């Protein structure tokens, strides 16, 4: 089956609600990636700054707990939203969270696809939980936070439900109707596969993230207003799910050409200290995400962030081997950027 025929496009106000909360906490980190293709919209910039002024200090601390860029805990609920088809009604989503078993919530928190090979499926044994958390590529503070949230039992779930509910009514509900319209407009445009631009966009994504259409039951695509130029990608084997959450302007990243401005942006991407070290390591041998994070002693979030930038510029390409996605250097693309720089500087 062709990759495009395997995709299901869904508008989701619930997923964009989580994306808006992620944006409030991590706006600056998201903007760094967005610099690959353009600038965040003035509307989003204004909304973030105004919302930050309105959010009480204690609520901002809760947002930072569940949406911190090193763990993105609440964002791990997106597969749960897709699994139970809780796309369009925030109240149904909150009700499902109320009824969700604590252990299922914790499972999503820690099994993100960037961890060790084994999975933790039971959380009743503290020593087993601590042992597993110690294998995760997250800062020590995030490991302690995760252990506290897990051992705090039902209170953790209630804190998260309260946070989402408050944010929805106070900051998101007023923009919800327009966001749904923007999402549907994107879907109407992007599902026209007679348009070569959109067809090439999704084929490029599938190549970048190594989607084997025969392996997955379905591939969900749900656009996000608040992700703007950024994108979230997740692949959860236990529930046979692959999902893209592209910002509604993410396609513009793929449209970047190779003029003077784009060459300079490519050089900046490549010569960032962490990305440069990643390219050096991957030039020696292909590695998968967890292994790369171990070598560089950085978090999953950091690796994911920098890999996204390198993949978007096509400096790194992915290949699936034995149920893992290995990343390797695309030497030809690097050579082309260097040649472009040479043409700009040397007669």
Automatic annotation (TrEMBL):
CDD domains to which the protein is assigned, alphabetical: HTH_ARSR
Source superkingdom: Bacteria
Record carries keyword ATP-binding: no
GO molecular function, one term: DNA binding
Sequence ranges assigned to domain HTH arsR-type in this UniProt record: 253-347
Keywords: DNA-binding, Transcription, Transcription regulation
Keyword Ion transport: no
Name of this protein: HTH arsR-type domain-containing protein
Record organism: Alkalihalophilus marmarensis DSM 21297
């Amino acid at each position: 089956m062709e990759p495009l025929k395997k995709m299901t496009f869904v508008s989701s106000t619930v997923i964009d609600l989580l994306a808006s909360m992620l944006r409030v906490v991590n706006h600056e980190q998201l903007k760094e990636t967005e610099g690959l293709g353009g600038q965040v919209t003035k509307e989003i910039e204004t909304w973030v700054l105004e919302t930050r002024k309105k959010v009480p200090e204690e609520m901002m601390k809760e947002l930072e707990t569940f949406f911190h860029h090193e763990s993105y805990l609440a964002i791990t609920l997106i597969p749960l939203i897709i699994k139970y088809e809780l796309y369009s009604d925030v109240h149904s989503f909150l009700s499902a969270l109320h009824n969700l078993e604590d252990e299922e919530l914790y499972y999503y928190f820690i099994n993100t696809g960037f961890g060790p090979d084994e999975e933790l499926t039971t959380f009743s044994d503290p020593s087993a939980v601590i042992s597993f958390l110690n294998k995760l590529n997250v800062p020590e503070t995030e490991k302690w936070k995760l252990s506290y949230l897990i051992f705090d039992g039902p209170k953790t779930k209630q804190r998260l439900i309260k946070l989402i509910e408050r944010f929805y009514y106070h900051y998101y509900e007023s923009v919800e109707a327009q966001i749904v319209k923007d999402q549907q407009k994107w879907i109407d445009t992007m599902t026209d596969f007679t348009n070569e631009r959109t067809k090439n966009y999704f084929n490029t994504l599938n190549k970048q993230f190594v989607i084997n259409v025969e392996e997955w039951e379905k591939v969900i695509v749900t656009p996000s207003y608040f992700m703007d130029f950024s994108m979230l990608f997740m692949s959860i084997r236990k529930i046979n799910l692959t999902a893209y959450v592209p910002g509604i302007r993410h396609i513009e990243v793929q449209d970047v050409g190779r003029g003077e401005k784009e060459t300079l942006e490519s050089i900046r991407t490549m010569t960032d200290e962490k990305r440069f070290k990643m390219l050096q390591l991957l030039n020696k041998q292909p590695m998968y995400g967890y292994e790369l994070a171990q070598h560089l002693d950085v978090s999953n979030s950091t690796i994911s962030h920098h890999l996204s930038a390198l993949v978007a510029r096509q400096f790194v390409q992915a290949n699936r081997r034995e149920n893992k996605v290995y990343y390797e250097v695309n030497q030809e693309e690097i050579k082309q950027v260097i040649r472009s720089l040479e043409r700009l500087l040397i007669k």
